Amino acid sequence: MHNGAPVVSPPASARPYSERVLLPVNVTLGIVLAVLLIAAVAVAALARLGHTRAIAVAGLRAAAQLAAVSYLIGWVVHALPRLLGFLLVMFAVAARTAGRRITRNRSWWWAALPIAVGVVPVVGLLLLTGLVPPRGLTLIPVTGILIGGALTATVLAGRRALDELETRRGEFEAGLALGLLDRDARMEVARPAASDALLPGLDQTRTVGLVTLPGAFVGMLLGGASPVQAGAVQLFVLVALLAVQATACAVVLELVARGRLHRVPLTPAEGE
What we know:
Elements: H1 17-20, H2 27-46, H3 52-76, H4 80-102, H5 112-129, H6 136-167, H7 169-177, H8 182-194, H9 199-207, H10 215-222, H11 227-257
Helix pairs in contact: 2-3, 4-5, 4-6, 5-6, 5-11, 6-8, 6-11, 7-8, 8-11, 9-11, 10-11
Family: Belongs to the UPF0014 family.
Organism: Streptomyces glebosus
Keywords: Membrane, Transmembrane, Transmembrane helix
């Protein structure tokens, strides 16, 4: 009470930005991040998990890349050619990352196809319906989330499918002996394993709001949106991701079954 009048707190959107953010950018944040990264490296080393150096490098790369991207986005959003170029760079990096995770030979570039087939139609639909305006600050994060989801599904499906074909080579050859086409014999072996790539997205969608509050939801709340608005955006992201990941998984499975994406050529033609 002040002079008999109740004191009313200003709404979240009216408070200074520094009071609304979850993680203020300051020295304390840097120290905590360093401690967490060192802890991750130490645990991996003590448990002999085999990725000690990779964890350290990944953390340092993430810091450098996010710092660069944070400044770069402010530059690209004001011109359509720069915006499109930035989105193409995101796609190219995702395609190469996925391809090199799946295989080390020249067939890795096929990994670009499932990512493109999964992401482009969904982004096009969102732009045509007006759900996502053609502005950089909206288009970049939405497209980035979808490309990231397609990347994860492509890597998991491709690796699991090729691992299964290597492990169960005898079953593939038995299928050929029974008269199955190469594509069908590979599909019988690889499909069950590749479909596991959908499980992370399914689990996240099933448990949203019960186990975790994903980033889009939290970000909207911190930006001053209502819980209903934040929930709608998060639902849109999750359902769009399911569509993108299912498509990417189906395409990469087809590429593996047709021998386009491989580790060891199954026929001389596939090594060309």
